[in-house]
Structure formats: structure tokens, C-alpha cells
């Protein structure tokens, strides 16, 4: 017999063997192969453990009106406008994250200002602004602007 790992139907043969659905001739061939091949023997043992765990598992029963509640919730979701489904739901977590970042920024900046010693800015330092760097920063900010806001601006 060909090794289960080398066969294209190895997974099907393994599943049928563990389920007891493999015909007697193929099952005998597989069992003789299992005596020789430790890798296949380990696969069969692991598959048997999975089947035992599934047999021991008892599913939780759904409530009697589960289907009715599910279909009502789907219908309520479909009645909402398209923009609500596409933009509103993702916008709420993003707005919450932005609010948290703003609060952190507001709390962090006053503490950091006391560590920075302010020095007078000379006029020559202001004149040495690199215009290409400013242009690149503006392009980067434009690239980071969400598409929906860019489309509104056009």
C-alpha cells in the first residue's frame, strides 16, 4: 500500500478508516501498512483522538426561537441604509481610537513641555526651511487622508 502522506487520497482513506467506512480489503491493507510506517500510525492515532473528542462533546442546544431571532436580525440589518452598513460601523471604532489618542496626546504634551527648554529662535533658523521637505510632508499628509474625504473635496 502507498503511504497515506504520499497518496492523493490519503486524507479520505484516513477519515474513512477512522469512521469505519473503509471496505475490508483496504482496511486490511492499511493496517498492514500501519505496522510498518510510524508516521501513518501517528496520524491514525491522532485522528482517533479527534474522533473520541468529538464523540465526547455535547453541543449546546439552541433556543426554540433562535431561527426567528436570527432572521429578524438579518432583516433589520438589511433595512438600514447602505452608507450605515459600509461607513458607520467601521467609523465608530476608528472614532473611539482617535479619541483615545487625542486624550493621550493632551495628557502627554504638558508633561513633555517642562522637559524641553525653550530657546529663542533666530531668524536665520526660520529661513533655512527646506521647501522640498515641506512639499513632501504635504504630499504624505494628502496620501494619508481617507478616500471619502478626498472625494468630497473634489
Helix content: over 70%
Largest sheet: none
Radius of gyration from the alpha-carbon trace, in angstroms:
33 Å
Structural class: mainly alpha
SSE sequence, one letter per element? HHHHHHHH
The shape is: elongated
Outline the structure in words:
The structure is a single chain. This protein has helices spanning 10-19, 24-36, 38-56, 66-79, 82-113, 123-127, 131-144, 147-153. The protein has 154 residues and is an all-alpha fold. α1 (10-19) crosses α3 (38-56) and α2 crosses α3 (38-56). The longest helix is centred in the middle third of the chain and has 32 residues, at 82-113. It is elongated, with a radius of gyration of 33 Å. 2% of the residues are buried.
Would you summarize the structure shown here?
By secondary structure, the protein is an all-alpha fold. Helices cover 74% and strands 0% of the residues. The chain has a domain at 10-56.
List keywords for this structure.
single chain; 154 residues; mainly alpha; elongated; disordered C terminus
Topology of helices and strands:
Elements: H1 10-19, H2 24-36, H3 38-56, H4 66-79, H5 82-113, H6 123-127, H7 131-144, H8 147-153
Amino acid at each position: 500500500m502507498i503511504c497515506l502522506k504520499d497518496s492523493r487520497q490519503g486524507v479520505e482513506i484516513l477519515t474513512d478508516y477512522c469512521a469505519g467506512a473503509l471496505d475490508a480489503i483496504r482496511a486490511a491493507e492499511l493496517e498492514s501498512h500501519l505496522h510498518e510506517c510510524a508516521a501513518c500510525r501517528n496520524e491514525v492515532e491522532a485522528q482517533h483522538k479527534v474522533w473520541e473528542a468529538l464523540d465526547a462533546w455535547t453541543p449546546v442546544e439552541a433556543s426554540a426561537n433562535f431561527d426567528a431571532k436570527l432572521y429578524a436580525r438579518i432583516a433589520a440589518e438589511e433595512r438600514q441604509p447602505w452608507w450605515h452598513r459600509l461607513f458607520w460601523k467601521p467609523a465608530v471604532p476608528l472614532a473611539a481610537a482617535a479619541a483615545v489618542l487625542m486624550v493621550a496626546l493632551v495628557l502627554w504634551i504638558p508633561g513633555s513641555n517642562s522637559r524641553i527648554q525653550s530657546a529663542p529662535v533666530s531668524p536665520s533658523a526660520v529661513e533655512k526651511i527646506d521647501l522640498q521637505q515641506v512639499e513632501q510632508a504635504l504630499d504624505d499628509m494628502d496620501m494619508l487622508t481617507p478616500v471619502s474625504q478626498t472625494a468630497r473635496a473634489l
